[in-house]
Amino acid sequence: MLMLGFAGFLGLLKILLMALAAFGLLDAAFRREDAFRAADKQNKMFWLVILAIALVVSYLFSILSILPIAGVVASIVYIVDVRPAVKQVSGGGGGFGRGRRGGSSSDGPYGPYNGGR
Phi then psi for 92, rounded to 5 degrees? Predict the structure, then answer.
C-alpha cells in the first residue's frame, strides 16, 4: 500500500516537472531573439534546446535519476533568472499567455491619472 502511494506521488511529481519544462519551453519560444541578447543571456536557440531536452528527459527517465534533476535545474534557472531579465528588456509584453497592453507610466488601476484636474 505504501509503495502504491509513493508511486502515485512520483507520478504527480513527474507531471509537475514536465509542466515546468513545457512552460519554460513555450515561454522561450514566444520571446523575441533580440531580447535575449539585450538581457545579456544566452541566445534563444540555446534555451529552446536546453528546455526541450529537459522536457524529453523528464518524460523518458525516472524522477530518481540525475538527468531529470538536471532538467529541473535548467527549467528553474530559465524561469527564475532568464525569463524576468528578458521580460524586463522586452517591456513585459509578449511571451506565452500574455496579452499586450498599451498605456503610459501615469496610468492608474482605473485609467489615466490626470493629477486631480
Answer: 80, -10
Q: Mapping DSSP to helix (H, G, I), strand (E, B) and coil, where does residue 108 land?
A: strand
Which amino acid, residue 52?
A
User: Which residue's C-alpha cell is 534555451?
Assistant: 47
DSSP-derived 3-state class of residue 41? coil
Please report, for residues 20, 23, 40, 91, 107, the alpha-carbon distance to residue 58 in angstroms, rounded to integers and kept in the order given.
Answer: 10, 13, 28, 32, 43
Q: Which helix (H) or strand (E) holds 48?
A: helix 44-60
pLDDT in tens, 47-94: 999 999 999 998 888 777 888 889 999 999 999 999 999 998 887 655
Q: CB–CB of 25/58 below 8 Å?
A: no
Amino acid at 76: I
